[in-house]
Amino acid sequence: MPHFLLLLSLLISGYSYAEINNKAIANADQDGGWYSYGRTYSEQRFSPERAINDKTVSQLKLDWSLELPTMKSLNATPLVVDGVMYFSGTHSVVIAVNALTGEELWRYDPQSLAALQKNRRQETMMSWGSSRGIAFWKGRIFVGTADGRLIAIDAKSGNKAWSAQTTEIDEPLGITGAPRVFNDTVIIGNGGSEFGPVRGYVTAYDTHTGKQRWRFYIVPGNPADGFENKAMAMAAKTWKGEWWKYGGGGTVWNAITYDPEYNRVYLGTGNGAPWNQKIRSPGGGDNLFLCSIVALDADTGEYVWHYQTNPGETWDYNSAMDIMLADLELDQQPRKVIMHAPKNGFFYIIDREDGKLISAEKFSKVTWAEKIDLETGRPVENPEARYLEEPALVWPSGYGAHNWHAMSYSPDTGLVYIPTQEIPSLFNDDELNLDNWQSTMFRWSVGTNKVMQDFPADVGSSSLQAWDPVTQKAIWQNPLPGAWNGGTLATAGNLVFQGTAEGNLIAYKADNGDELWRFPVGVGISAPPISYSINGKQYISVLAGWGGATYFGLSLFAQHGWEYGVHPRRLLTFSLDGKAELPAAVAPVTSLNYVNDAELIIDDKKAERGKAAFAETCFYCHGYGMVAGGGAPDLRASKMAANKGLFEKIVRGGLLQKRGMPAFSGFTDQQIDDLYWYVRWRARESATALNP
Ligand code: CA
Fold first, then answer.
1. Are 647 and 656 in contact (CB under 8 A)?
2. Are 210 and 188 within 8 A, CB to CB?
3. Catalytic-role residue among 31, 259, 286, 316
4. Which residues pair with 542 in a beta bridge?
5. What is the tens place of the pLDDT at every residue in 196-228?
6. From the CA of 447, how far away is ligand 1's center (Å)?
7. Residue ranges of the alpha helices (H) in 331-486?
8. How many angstroms separate the CA atoms of 310 and 307, rounded?
């Protein structure tokens, strides 16, 4: 190529899309793209772009938008490579659009809903609509699916290059997280420790062929079968009883970070299966490697070190939240650290070299522990929080003080921007026979009673918090309505962007938290925004489509008026000279039309039984007390649910399977009847409360 052409092509596009590799991802700061889940390997979600800044952001306008009417929850971080934006939507459908115009280029549907139906994994279907992202490597996109496949897609054509089944077909394990890539290797974990006896693991594949390179299990299996490696033999010493019968849990469902400086991957591991340690490991023990960061050699998958945030976890806490890499100056020493804000409410700084704890402080209300002892690295627990004898009201809840919603870090301000929520859980196993407890495959199965009950909408709060990792103190904190707000993006323009559950994309001044700009998008946002530039022009993009939890209808979450099938799903892109207009959307619904036939005589006894059945199965889409919050139809206002014949055809017959409603073929006539009457009873109760 003549020199001037080479220079021109470098100037225009930075790395071309065949070239995205370790070097390109590590050097993404020198280009306008967004090449990997957390932008660079550091996962800091910091954009060096500064045209949109604290002085100019008031001029930020919609540049283009794309309506996505077939989607439900949208939680992904889009990638931008060589002028094309790629993202995964609901059920891991991957879409490529022109990053300048939003024009759709191709769409790949892995048919994951149909795969779940085929494998009779009905109950977990709704839980697995979410996809948090994709990976890009040398002209290929990688995406995981609800039925456990990892798929490589040609970035130009949108055609499948290869597909690997990363889980066993009869395990209740599915993928919602983004794969990560390095050294021609793609790595993926899985989730599902609430749905049966699962044992978590990650698997690494060759990006070219899809052949397995290595696998690492998070918890030990049955000692009688022999251990896979020394790490599992070591971990087995921290378990009691016959833990392998319950799987143990420890799924790596979200955080995996590659560290090019040490050629390691750090895994963020999940909670125990079941949650209740009395069942899983009677008599206690640390239960390695639950709730830990585990460092592995990136080429071999061999164990290097671990740090456990919750020894012997029993609250659905986990360490699956972002694992962010940074160079910090601590006590006048430059340190290579991990920054980590897991569900349990402490902010941890960990040495990347050896996994030793440097500091840990509470970033939210925490009652399960007093502090983390820096000598031992272990929490000083409040013994009552373990609900050994009595039920315990514990902060944070299993929703986490921080969940999967990405945090970001600005090296300019030195602050970490954490989507924070403060919600309690009441832990109680009174009515369970702990000695003979068994997990139920593909069903909500956590070994506690009534733990996910609702609270009044004002029990709990949320905020965007700017945290100084050096002094371990909050610098500013902006309260937000409700809870379950989106991930954050920090930029060199002294800005931090966050989408909210209430449906606004907001820009704050990064150093002091002043709100500078907001844009209503017509529906709640869960996904984190990104920034990129093409031909020297900076853009901000975000997916809007609230969701991303299996149990969604908590009153604190459900108060924003988003209704299933009513409010839009869309991709929005902003610039300083944008001229686009957002299509009109229905305003949040402030009162529902409850279906109440005053003539109908409701059978209270059946309704009472139906309430219990509902709380076991239906709640995690249709909401606590049937307040759905937009994740699924609110049954109190559903005409379909009021028709008994249709109700049976939908719930047991699978009439709405294509829309994602499972077919509960195992329900008896009596269970269907009871559920029907509970829906009628609850609809009347709500209608009467409205018009007494
Ligand atoms: Ca969990």
1. no
2. no
3. 316
4. 572
5. 899 999 999 999 999 999 999 999 999 999 999
6. 12
7. none
8. 9
Give every CB contact of residue 678 below 8 A, 6+ residues apart in sequence: 606, 607, 608, 609, 610, 611, 613, 614
How distant is the alpha carbon of residue 434 from its chain centre? 30
Give the Å distance between the CA of 578 and the centre of ligand 1.
Answer: 41
What was the pLDDT predicted at 445?
85
Complete edge-to-edge strand list for the sheet that includes strand 79-81 = 79-81, 84-88, 94-98, 104-108
Q: Which helix (H) or strand (E) holds 608?
A: helix 604-613
DSSP code, position 34? B
Please tell me the total number of residues recorded for the chain in this structure.
692
| 316 Cα: distance to centroid of ligand 1 (angstroms) | 5
Residue 314, CB-side half-sphere exposure with 13 Å CA sphere: 32
Does pLDDT of 367 surpass 90? yes
Look at residue 238 and give its three-state secondary structure.
Answer: coil
CA of 251 to the centre of ligand 1 (A): 9
Ligand 1 center from residue 194 Cα (angstroms): 6
The string of pLDDT tens digits covering residues 42-60 is 999 999 999 999 999 999 9
pTM for the model stands at 0.95
Q: What is the CA radius of gyration of the chain?
A: 24
**DSSP one-letter code for 615:** I
Residue found under tokens 């009595």: 390
DSSP string computed for 308-371: ESSTT--SS--S-S-EEEEEEEETTEEEEEEEE--TTSEEEEEETTT--EEEEEESS---SEEE
Distance CA 202, CA 217 (A): 7
Nearest CA among 666, 689, 654 for reference residue 613: 666
Q: Catalytic site residue 354?
A: no
Task: For residue 1, report the distance from its CA to the centre of ligand 1, in Å.
Answer: 53
Torsional sign, CA 600, 606, 607, 608: positive
Distance from the alpha carbon of residue 145 to the mean position of ligand 1, in angstroms? 18
Which residue, chain included where needed, has tokens 């409700």?
482
From CA 265, how far away is CA 218, in angstroms rounded? 14
Query: Alpha-carbon dihedral of residues 205, 207, 208, 209, nearest 10 degrees?
Result: 20
If you ran DSSP here, which 8-state letter would residue 183 be given? T
Q: Identify how many contiguous H helices and E strands the chain contains and give both numbers.
A: 10, 39
Cα–ligand 1 centroid distance for 353 (angstroms): 28
Q: Tens digit of pLDDT for each residue in 537-556? A: 999 999 999 887 655 566 77
